[in-house]
Amino acid sequence: MSDPVPRRRKWRRVLLGALLAALSMVFLVPAGVNAWLDRGVVPMTTQQKRVTSKDGTIIAYETSGSGPALVIVSAALADRTGTTRLANHLARHFTVVNYDRRGRGQSSDTPPYAVEREVEDIETLIEAEGGSTFVFGSSSGAVLALDAASRLGPKVQRLFLYEPPFIVDTSRPPMPRDFSHQVSGLVSSGQRNDAVKLFFAKGMGLPGFAVTMMRWLMPGWSKMASVAHTIPYDLAVLDGTQSGEPLPAGRWSGTTAPTLVEVGSRSEPFFHAGARALVPLLAHANYRALDGRDHSAILMATKALSDEITPFFLSAR
């Protein structure tokens, strides 16, 4: 019989990692937590800007720092405030472009949604900041960044992807085929809280009691519910990568930028399997594990993540 104590410890670690991963998508946390996370980080002066994308959507963003331009692409349910700490670290070496994806924060939205429109948003930002940039993306934002690199060619100089959530084998159950339809149905009927709960339960695989705790204890929940209509946007970005089957071989064939795909060493096996499956499909890509980290690094380990991003991009100079 297996020892129940190590098993309980394992599940505690899994739950803690899952909760931190969920927290990494929340763009409002208690002031005390903010202060603790920001210790030692010198806030950078930012310039608030706006550009108009090709379909007329207003994209709000801010720039900080100096040096070569670097665009940050955020994950599901997050606006640019979720990547402010990372931007502060990176601004020591780069002109960081931290933006609100369409439908979030101060950016507007123009239906109907298409992934191509979000790629156009990134292209508009790149053109506004000099015509070519480095691009960083996390989680579903990493997949959007990859789509942009594939379609924009030399406008993306280098690409850093942190934990694209591909499901390519049996290490995690595939996403339900009608998941986007389920979420859209809840949003259209005014059940935004339920849409967010469904996303965390089925999309991120959190146990029901953990989602319930988040619903009542996390002050950022209401803000996430306000952008629940963007969950199908990220699911559209992930379309074709969540079935447990091999990745679509030709989808990113246009990616010429040197690419680093990184996964936290403590993250679930499916993240590693997906990253390793992606690398052979790209012309110039490598896989690396970030020691001691997991999916929450985008919020909880921004210095460690910045220390990985910075040399990779600066090596292009």
Keywords:
317 residues, alpha/beta, eight-stranded mixed sheet, 13 helices, 42% helix, disordered N terminus
Q: What's the layout of helices and strands?
A:
Elements: H1 4-23, H2 31-37, E1 46-52, E2 58-64, E3 69-73, H3 84-90, E4 95-99, H4 115-128, E5 133-138, H5 140-152, E6 156-162, H6 179-188, H7 192-203, H8 208-217, H9 221-226, H10 231-237, E7 259-264, H11 269-278, E8 285-290, H12 297-300, H13 302-314
Parallel strand pairs: 3-4, 3-5, 5-6, 6-7, 7-8
Antiparallel strand pairs: 1-2, 2-4
Helix pairs in contact: 3-13, 4-5, 6-7, 6-10, 7-8
Overall pLDDT metric? 89
Strand-pairing-aware structural class: alpha/beta
Uncertain ranges = 1-36
Helix content: 40-55%
DSSP helical segment count: 13
Largest sheet: 8 strands, mixed
Order of helices and strands: HHEEEHEHEHEHHHHHEHEHH
Strand content: 15-25%
- The neighbouring-strand order within the major sheet is 1-2-4-3-5-6-7-8
How many angstroms does the end-to-end distance come to?
57 Å
- What is the β-strand count? 8
What overall form do the CA principal axes indicate? globular
Spatial extent as radius of gyration: 18 Å
